[in-house]
Design goal:
This protein folds into 2 domains: 30 residues; 212 residues, MetI-like fold. It has 10 helices and no strands. InterPro entries: MetI-like, MetI-like_sf. It comes from Polycladospora coralii.
Length: 250
């Protein structure tokens, strides 16, 4: 019932929005190349369905591998910086600076260094995804209950034991917040990476459709980009709910 209360207003709002969109296109006789109606988009989706899923598979692959790479890198960096405060004071500013480098400018360099394969594309997604994980996980580590820290020290727990048994579990809510952000960023990162000369992917479909003034196909690509991002977010939310429930009810 609570889930219905949450999703019902969203569903109704979406339906009303689509109906208004359809009505405006019909009433003002707007050309499809300028603004396609939801029906035009749905019809085009069906007509190029095989091509869509082929491109979707490519974008999904780059997104998931880039996200996993960013996850490993982000957690690794956060752990090292937290356990060694001296390194955090040195390298954290450089991590912040790295996020101000436009990836659209960095992308050609990655192509020159690694070629036109999958590697540069996964690297771009990884560079987008690791930062929210580093920041949120570090923040989670610092929110550990100091009373419990003192208790474990008095009990003779080693530094590593305190980290594994207390600090890491305490950081999980913050970690998942960063991971959900990274998951949504990963799809957009994959789309950007596909603009570097890829032959498949939703980013390629988006670019080709835009150049040929197939606005209906542009909206099809955008729709599936949004759907993929939402799916990633929902899946990680389910994992978060399961793990945090297990943590609270061992």
């Amino acid at each position: 019932m609570n889930k219905m209360k949450t999703w019902f207003p969203v569903l109704i709002t979406s339906i009303v929005f689509l109906l208004l969109w359809e009505a405006i296109v019909i009433l003002f006789a707007i050309e499809t190349w300028l603004l396609p109606s939801p029906y035009d988009i749905l019809r085009e989706t069906w007509e190029i369905r095989d091509r869509i899923f082929e491109n979707l598979r490519s974008t999904f692959t780059i997104s998931i591998f880039g996200l996993m790479s960013g996850l490993v890198l982000g957690v690794g960096i956060a752990t090292v910086l937290y356990l060694i405060p001296f390194l955090q004071r040195i390298f954290y500013p450089f991590i912040l600076i790295s996020q101000n480098i436009p990836l659209i400018a960095l992308a050609p360099l990655l192509v020159m260094w690694f070629g036109f394969g999958v590697g540069p594309k996964i690297t771009i997604v990884m560079l987008i995804c690791f930062f929210p994980i580093v920041v949120s996980t570090l923040d989670g580590f610092t929110q550990t209950d100091p009373t419990l820290q003192t208790y474990l020290k008095m009990a003779g727990a080693s530094r590593w034991q305190r980290f594994i048994k207390l600090e890491w579990p305490s950081a999980l809510p913050s970690f998942f917040s960063g991971l959900k952000l990274s998951a949504t960023y990963s799809v957009m990162g994959a789309v950007i990476s596909e603009w570097l000369g890829s032959q498949k992917g939703l980013g390629v479909l988006l670019t080709l459709s835009s150049k040929s003034f197939r606005t209906d196909r542009v909206f099809v690509a955008i729709t599936f980009i949004v759907i993929l991002s939402i799916c990633f977010f929902i899946i990680i939310s389910w994992i978060e709910r399961f793990i945090l429930h297990w943590k609270q009810n061992p």
